[in-house]
Design goal:
4-stranded antiparallel sheet; 320 residues; globular; 12 helices; alpha/beta; 35% helix
Length: 320
């Protein structure tokens, strides 16, 4: 481990490019609530991050809140390869096992069937990308529906795991060709340092009528969190800091910011119609009444996910 990690400075808004951004909060990574959080959450010495401060910036045009200093490649490799979930084993995760063993009843399986219905194509005819796939649950479920599945992930152990389960890895410089019907980014875009360039590559990778799905934490309350940090009311817990999670959530989105991102990418924000949102019900066995709690959750989800106060769920479609 190096004596100190490096950062990349982002002064302009990563969504709209506005240069009139202003500081909402700033403190050294090893001080106050931020220092306490880093020590408790990662079990690391925050003095390793002394090369830059934790600084929240606000864009006056699109309302994005973002961290001015995001980790360089070495820090990101350490963060996502070692500090996070370094002992996680998918086979020991009960929910992971349940979802991949019953794809037709899974949240991700239902989403894939909805996308197929919107695109008027059978799942077996879809080429999809799970961008930031982690341990590849979405990708593995898509594979079981017959999709041609690609995955992008920076952590080597997760890539190796996905490959063993039939997911084709793709490098960042291989993106940009119009090949995907659907691109899944589930809790990913808030982590992306080079947001504009990455989002542009993903948009260019869509086929005509293709869909880019973005699901991110709702950061409408980020300015309030910045105020709590300034007044020292924030204790530094994950529950308090999640939308502006130090190091990880370097982009904190509002609905307006996502709309501005779609506009910049030349994509149209869409919502499937009510009938389309329940396309999975055309498949026998997609809901089991013998599992009432899960059945209820899956029946509510197609409506609730667009009104969830803690998460933003958006589909962006390329013109045909």
């Amino acid at each position: 481990m190096p004596d100190a990690f490096g950062f990349v400075e982002r002064r302009d808004c990563p969504v709209c490019g506005c240069s009139r951004t202003t500081t909402a909060f700033r403190i050294p990574f090893d001080k106050g609530a931020i220092g306490r959080f880093l020590r408790d959450y990662y079990a690391v010495d925050p003095r390793l991050l002394r090369a830059a401060p934790y600084e929240l910036m606000r864009c006056p045009d699109c309302t994005l809140i973002f961290q001015r200093f995001a980790g360089d490649d070495a820090l990101l490799d350490e963060l996502y390869g070692k500090w996070i979930n370094h002992s996680y084993v998918p086979e020991l995760d009960q929910q992971y096992r349940a979802e991949v063993s019953a794809p037709l009843r899974s949240r991700d399986g239902h989403e894939i069937l909805i996308a197929a219905d919107v695109l008027s194509i059978r799942p077996e005819g879809m080429t999809v990308l799970d961008f930031g796939m982690g341990w590849g649950m979405w990708a593995r479920i898509a594979k079981q529906f017959g999709c041609d599945v690609y995955g992008r992930e920076i952590a080597a152990d997760r890539v190796e795991y996905a490959v063993r389960h039939g997911v084709r890895p793709i490098k960042i410089d291989e993106l940009g060709k119009p090949m995907f019907h659907f691109i899944n980014t589930e809790q990913v875009m808030e982590h992306v340092r080079d947001l504009a360039a990455t989002a542009s590559q993903l948009a260019q990778s869509l086929r005509p009528n293709g869909i880019l799905k973005i699901s991110v934490p709702n950061a409408e309350g980020a300015l309030r969190i910045a105020g709590d940090l300034r007044s020292e009311r924030c204790r530094g817990t994950i529950e308090e800091l999640m939308p502006v999670h130090p190091l990880e959530h370097v982009n904190s989105f509002t609905r307006q910011a996502l709309s501005k991102l779609a506009e910049r990418l030349g994509l149209k924000v869409i919502r499937p119609g009510i009938a389309q949102r329940y396309a999975f019900l055309k498949r026998r066995g997609s809901i089991l009444l013998t599992e009432p709690a899960k059945a209820l959750k899956e029946l509510v989800r197609p409506i609730y996910q667009y009104h969830n106060r803690s998460n933003l769920y958006v589909w962006m479609q390329k013109a045909g």
